[in-house]
Amino acid sequence: xxxxxxxxxxxxxxxxxxxxxxxxxxxxxxxxxxxxxxxxxxxxxxxxxxxxxxxxxxxxxxxxxxxxxxxxxxxxxxxxxxxxxxxxxxxxxxxxxxxxxxxxxxxxxxxxxxxxxxxxxxxxxxxxxxxxxxxxxxxxxxxxxxxx
Length: 148
Description:
CATH class of the largest domain: Mainly Alpha
Distance between the termini: 45 Å
Organism: Enterococcus columbae DSM 7374 = ATCC 51263
Radius of gyration: 18 Å
Pfam family, one: YqeY
Keywords: Transferase
Structural class: mainly alpha
Number of domains: 2
InterPro entries: Asn/Gln_tRNA_amidoTrase-B-like (IPR003789), GatB_Yqey_C_2 (IPR023168), YqeY/Aim41 (IPR019004), YqeY/Aim41_N (IPR042184)
GO molecular function: carbon-nitrogen ligase activity, with glutamine as amido-N-donor; transferase activity
């Protein structure tokens, strides 16, 4: 079942349950995917759908940190609910240990020895963890391991 079909089913379920939060987020996700389809001119592959979902998740995480810094607790709670809903459609997230192992393998693969080779390592790691890990977390771990 494609992601759009799943979103349509979940949208109907949310409407029947009168769950406004879920309905709003599902509609936003559906609109983003449909916009991307229009832009691409074809049905999206699973990888392209994952890219759209990852972008939506990143926007919400960025908004969460902004709201937390601004002390907007009312908006923080709303965004946390949205993040939980978007997470349902993403693949299971990697643990920090699994992430460190992937990054360590990438560092060995490109023979990186200093922070100057950060871009090479990220280029190898990001396709492997796409949608399965937060880019900021990956970034922090790569920097930490390269600076040892």
